[in-house]
Amino acid sequence: MSKPIRITNATLRSLTAREKDYFIRDSQLRGFHIKVPPSGRAVYQVEARMSGVGKTKKFKIASVKEMDLSQAREKAVEALQNIRAGIDPSSIKKAREFEGMKFSTIFEDYIENKDLKESTLKEYHSLYRGRMQHWARKRVTDITKHEIRDWFNQGRRKTVRQANKAFTLLNSLMNYAQATEIIDRNPCELVTRAGLRQSSPKRDTIISSEDLGKFWTAFTDFDFQKDSQKVARDVMVLQLCTGLRPNEARSLKWATVDFERKKFKVLNTKNGSDHELPMTQLTYAMFRERQKDKDGSDYVFRIKGGKTKTPHVTDYRKTLNKICELAEIERVRPHDLRRTVATALNDIEVGYANKAHIMNHSGVHITASAYIQRNLDNIRKILQRLVDYYDLKIPVIEDEGYSPYTTGTIRYKIYNIGELSADLLSPAESRVVSSMAEDEYWEG
User: Fold this and answer.
1) Residue 275: which residues within 8 A CB-CB, separation 6 or more?
2) Which of 107, 158, 159, 225 has a 20 to 30 Å separation from 90 between CA atoms?
3) pLDDT tens for each residue of 238-274
4) Using an 8 Å Cβ cutoff, are 403 and 433 in contact?
5) Are strands 257-258 and 263-266 parallel, antiparallel or unpaired?
6) 297 compared with 54, residue with greater pLDDT
């Protein structure tokens, strides 16, 4: 180590590059030195132990060419004082750089650096615009914990579920800001530690077994005139026959529909895997009906014209509400159709493993899941039983002495495919159901 000298402007003028890094240490200010690398780009640095006893901390002040010596000494004194007091000058420098960072910038940085699904990204933008826009121009460091508490309390008075969603996003944004050393502490901690968050009431709305007959009767009697209503009809048929999540059904692409093998695949589902399902006679008819209206679109449930942000249907609650009103039953939401399928599978006594595979639940036993995936014909039979279960809820045959219920009803009434066969009532008045002929199974 070279002997410390009093660093002067003359010292700076005499600096020359060598083969290796070398240091010129100042005798006047202990811990202050100049580092000269082989490139010749000399820099001012300080070096001291954290809190006077901890690990040695080095901190670059500036380039010799960018700052004069007197200013560098002032910066060095401040940095050395902070290090010996246990304060990392790097964090102070970074805090100063980020001090004026706006909340909108944090949001943009967060979504840019996270690998988010399109649906998640859309939801985050919606929550940001609807519930956080007032912070857009505000510095992140100026958003206080009490401000967040008041914002959360006000939001949950309207809807607990949306308030919780917005808070979860805000908490993630503030955790990101803390991890990147923009803020020292997450101001969302007050809401969490004070126990202000309430559990969102779980939705358990379904179309009950008792109401399924009313619903399907209204569904098959409904006059689907508009293109948007026909698209809504078909995406609901797919949901009710498969249990798909709304976003998985409505964003289905033609590239994953296989008419030859009569199956289709949903890519990148909620649990991170692809989900393959077989067609039934009803879903096959639905896909053929949609194919007539394909018109070059990549999406099965495309939207014609209009000013839509996505090329596929996104909201069909209006049509669903009208059907519920016609059926004179409680309104349900698109996701409630998925729960309705899960309940219906229980009604027809489908086993746990098969049900878990159809519903694409995560955590299914690996061996069972692998077996079921190879045996799509078995799943096809189960899904056909589900469709038959729906069909037998709709009274369509009025001949005296015959059962008013038969299979193939939905397909016949919606897509005009197949035929309805009447069955004699047994003496015990049980309903005898005749299955459709096998050669008619894939008609259409």
Assistant:
1) 244, 248, 265, 266, 269, 360
2) 107
3) 999 999 999 999 999 999 999 999 999 999 888 778 9
4) yes
5) antiparallel
6) 297
**3-class secondary structure for 397-408?**
CCCCCEECCCCC
Task: Write down the CATH superfamily of domain 209-438.
Answer: Intergrase catalytic core (1.10.443.10)
* Alpha helices per DSSP H over 135-256: 145-158, 160-179, 189-193, 209-221, 227-242, 246-250
Which residues make up the CATH 1.10.443.10 domain(s) of the chain?
209-438
d(CA 150, CA 146): 6
DSSP state of 134: G
Q: Using an 8 Å Cβ cutoff, are 396 and 380 in contact?
A: no
Superfamily of domain 9-97 in CATH is Integrase, DNA-binding domain (3.30.160.390)
Encode pLDDT of 54-88 as tens digits. 789 999 999 999 999 999 999 999 999 999 988 88
Pairing, β 275-278 against β 402-403: unpaired
CATH 3.30.160.390 maps onto the chain at 9-97
Radius of gyration of the chain (CA): 34
Phi and psi based region of residue 369 (left: phi greater than 0; alpha: psi -120 to 50; beta: remaining): alpha
Instruction: Give bridge partners of residue 49 from the DSSP assignment.
Output: 56
> Which stretch of DSSP H or E encloses residue 282?
helix 281-291
Concatenating the DSSP letter of every residue in 87-117 gives: --HHHHHHHHHHTT-BHHHHHHHHHHHS---
Tell me the residue type at 201. P
DSSP E strand boundaries for 352-409: 402-403
Q: How many CB atoms lie within 10 A of CB 255?
A: 12
Number of Cβ within 10 Å of residue 245's Cβ equals 21
Given a contact cutoff of 8 angstroms between Cβ atoms, the answer to whether 290 and 300 are in contact is yes
CATH topology assigned to domain 103-193: DNA polymerase; domain 1 (1.10.150)
CA 116 to chain centroid, in Å, comes to: 7
pTM greater than 0.85: no
Region for residue 81 given its phi and psi (left: phi exceeds 0; alpha: psi -120 to 50; beta: otherwise): alpha
